[in-house]
Structures are given as structure tokens and as C-alpha cells.
Design goal:
With 70 residues, the chain is mostly beta strands. Helix content is 14%, strand content 40%. The chain has a five-stranded antiparallel β-sheet with strand order 4-3-2-1-5, with helices on one face. A hairpin with a 7-residue loop joins strand 3 and strand 4. The chain starts with 9 loop residues before the first strand and ends with a strand. The model has no long low-confidence stretch (mean pLDDT 94). This is Methyltransferase. It comes from Microbacterium psychrotolerans.
């Protein structure tokens, strides 16, 4: 018997004070979850929109985070 694993890419967003959140790609799109949150902040159709959504939820005046795929 074989098993099939589905890989869903994950990007972690790093801000000036550490991890700001993450973006996970799945069949529905790109899901944003902020660090420490119990629920996602939404699912977006493109990575660029998801990055912008994550950045908009960071503290006002925050620099654009560094996104690293894990």
C-alpha cells in the first residue's frame, strides 16, 4: 500500500521584531495567518495579493517583511 502526501508550500514573513505571519498555498489560493492568531486572515487568489494583505495587518509604519519559503 502506498501513501500520497500533498505538499502545500509555506512562506514565513519576518518583520523587524520577528515572525509576522505566514502564507500557505493550497487548492483554494494563498491563506494568510498572522503570528499568534487563532484563525486565518483570509485566502487570496495570488501570492502578491496575499503578501499585501499580510503587510496591511502589521503595525502601522512597518517595513515590508522578508518572505522565506519553508
Amino acid at each position: 500500500m502506498s501513501t500520497t502526501e500533498t505538499h502545500h508550500p509555506l512562506w514565513v514573513a519576518y518583520g523587524a521584531s520577528g515572525v509576522a505571519g505566514s502564507i500557505r498555498k493550497d487548492d483554494d489560493g494563498y491563506t494568510v495567518t498572522m503570528a499568534g492568531a487563532d484563525h486565518s486572515a483570509g485566502t487570496y487568489p495570488t501570492m502578491e495579493i496575499a503578501k499585501s494583505a499580510l503587510h496591511s495587518r502589521m503595525a502601522p509604519g512597518s517595513d515590508w517583511p522578508l518572505f522565506r519559503e519553508h
